[in-house]
């Protein structure tokens, strides 16, 4: 007797770029595209719409995502012109630069400029106590927090890589992410997704036809006819073709908290072909925003993110070119306009928004690609197997009601989790601005105004003045940034937490000092044991990662 085969489930992704192709590749791998019992995935993109990606930075989660897709790390590095990223080096955020300080691109400490580091490594936790309270109580002397609790700052300052050629792909002694060329990365993802069974269509969606239940019935295209699916994923960028234009989901603006709404991007060469490659983003604060500066193997990706309420485009370009100096001569800057915020619902009916169609924040902490990763992971977990063709599989009665309820419940769960995640990212980004002691421009004065700080963040700061952040301040599934990241920003910016009234509770100061001394002692050895960043990148480009040769045993020598 023949066994009935379950109908094939279908996904249609509208839009390519990093959002579309990363989502397609991840879902193709996890939902077994093209395999019996898997899904059929189609991605349609227009040939006329380019890739916005200018930040070119990622979060450490990208390593597990790429590994899950099955992309070899050396291949990713070569084909994306990628380099390693160990954190973010912040310049001039905490204090106003000295009046006679010149614009700086230098790494490390520069006279007249304040600076701090947000490393990706967690604070050291050996056999001793948690180090933060003892650092606050002076146990590490005057060492900056990131320098006192991890050796990653010293490694990055020395232009060393986070790993060695013999380390396994996606693993290393130090935590890391990447910088890359956004166009080349999207091209790699497209190749891999197609290899995994994704059907690629080039064309334009002419009309989104809705059903009677608040979902999508089909997509009409002049090139490929009607496209139907169980789930439609909107990766159409700021156009938000389905979630915004067709389904009219409101956009929640965050401009009253995060002022920046413009970016000028400019790619420049290195001064010398063999110049050291910084293994972190350099984020330098200016009068109405901040510049990013990242190192690829053959160029620097730079830009200025700023507020149009506090500067005009002409002045912004002057700031960027003054920062870059001669490297910018004869090169044209690209202007991008954006609005910080997110859709009030990311999943509506049988449509999910991923990437810019769902929301956007400035690239200060590389949240853009990380949010694409989170969305792809959650869609894979929540994929609605109980529907077919956008309509409940149960023809009528209880089956239909049950599947409709399941889809609605899935959307509510997804929206609640993503909504909280967006809210918490807003708080974390605002933290970088509201703690600044700069008062040299209206931009920085406005950022410090308590009226522009979300209430939840104000409450946390009031508590953190008397105790450091703890895990109880955070709900794991709502967070992008763990407590350690808050620690690095808070105390890098000079935030004061007064533990003197509770000093008696911290009775392990001798052990903590031992840990601080131990970290200082091993740091030079760690630096010496790692290759320079440029040397590792060039070696991996040529030869990939090379495991150490197997040691011959005594039996093997006989």
UniProtKB/TrEMBL annotation:
Signal peptide: none annotated. The active site is at 85. 7-chloro-L-tryptophan binds at residue 85. The keyword Transmembrane helix does not apply. L-tryptophan binds at residue 365. It holds the Pfam family Trp_halogenase. Its EC number is 1.14.19.9. FAD binds at residues 16-19, 205, 356, 369. Keywords: FAD, Flavoprotein, Nucleotide-binding, Oxidoreductase. It comes from the Bacteria. One of its GO terms (molecular function) is nucleotide binding. InterPro entries: FAD/NAD-bd_sf, Flavin-dep_Halogenase_NPB, Flavin_halogenase, Trp_halogen. PANTHER family: FAD-BINDING PROTEIN, FLAVIN-DEPENDENT TRYPTOPHAN HALOGENASE. This is Tryptophan halogenase.
């Amino acid at each position: 007797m023949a066994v009935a085969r379950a109908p094939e489930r279908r996904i249609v992704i509208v839009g390519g770029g990093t959002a579309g192709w990363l989502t397609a590749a991840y879902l193709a791998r996890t939902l077994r595209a093209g395999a019996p019992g898997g899904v059929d995935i189609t991605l349609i993109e227009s040939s006329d719409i380019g890739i916005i990606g200018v930040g070119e930075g990622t979060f450490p989660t990208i390593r597990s995502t790429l590994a899950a897709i099955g992309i070899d790390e050396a291949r990713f590095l070569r084909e994306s012109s990628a380099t390693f990223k160990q954190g973010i080096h912040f310049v001039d955020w905490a204090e106003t630069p000295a009046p006679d300080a010149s614009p700086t691109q230098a790494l490390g400490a520069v006279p007249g400029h304040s600076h701090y580091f947000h490393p990706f490594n967690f604070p050291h936790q050996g056999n001793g106590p948690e180090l933060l309270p003892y650092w606050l109580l002076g146990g590490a002397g005057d060492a900056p927090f990131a320098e006192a609790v991890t050796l990653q700052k010293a490694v990055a300052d020395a232009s060393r890589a986070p790993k060695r050629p013999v380390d396994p792909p996606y693993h290393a002694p130090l935590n890391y992410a990447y910088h890359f060329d956004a166009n080349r990365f999207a091209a790699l993802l497209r190749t891999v997704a197609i290899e995994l069974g994704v059907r690629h269509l080039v064309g334009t969606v002419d009309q989104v036809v809705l059903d009677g239940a608040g979902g999508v019935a089909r997509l009409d295209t002049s090139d490929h006819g009607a496209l139907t699916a169980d789930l439609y994923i909107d990766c159409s960028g700021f156009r938000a073709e389905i979630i915004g234009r067709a389904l009219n989901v409101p956009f929640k603006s965050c401009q009253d908290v995060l002022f920046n709404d413009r970016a000028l991007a400019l790619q420049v060469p290195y001064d010398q072909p063999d110049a050291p490659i910084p293994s972190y983003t350099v984020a330098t604060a200016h009068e109405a925003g901040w510049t990013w500066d990242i190192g690829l193997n053959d160029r620097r990706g730079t830009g200025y993110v700023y507020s149009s309420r506090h500067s005009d485009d002409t002045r912004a370009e002057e700031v960027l070119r003054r920062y870059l100096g001669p490297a910018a001569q004869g090169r044209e800057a690209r202007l991008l306009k954006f609005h910080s915020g997110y859709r009030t619902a990311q999943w509506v009916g049988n449509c999910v928004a991923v990437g810019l169609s769902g929301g956007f924040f400035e690239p200060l902490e590389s949240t853009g690609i990380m949010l694409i990763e989170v969305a792809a992971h959650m869609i894979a977990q929540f994929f609605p197997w109980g529907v077919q063709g956008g309509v409940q599989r149960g023809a009528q009665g209880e089956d239909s009601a049950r599947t409709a309820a399941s889809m609605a419940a899935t959307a509510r769960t997804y929206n609640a989790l993503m909504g909280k995640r967006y809210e918490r990212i807003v708080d974390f980004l605002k933290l970088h601005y509201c703690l600044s002691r700069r008062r040299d421009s209206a931009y920085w004065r406005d950022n410090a105004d308590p009226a522009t700080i979300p209430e939840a963040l104000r409450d946390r700061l009031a508590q953190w003045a008397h105790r450091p952040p703890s895990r109880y301040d955070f709900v794991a599934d709502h967070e992008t940034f763990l407590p350690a990241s808050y620690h690095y920003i808070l105390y890098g910016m000079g935030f004061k937490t007064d533990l003197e009234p509770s000093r008696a509770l911290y009775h392990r100061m001798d052990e903590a000092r031992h840990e601080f001394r131990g970290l200082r002692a091993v740091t030079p050895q760690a630096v010496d044991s790692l290759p320079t960043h440029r040397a590792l990148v060039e070696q991996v480009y040529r030869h990939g990662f090379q495991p150490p040769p197997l040691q011959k045993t005594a039996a093997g020598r006989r």
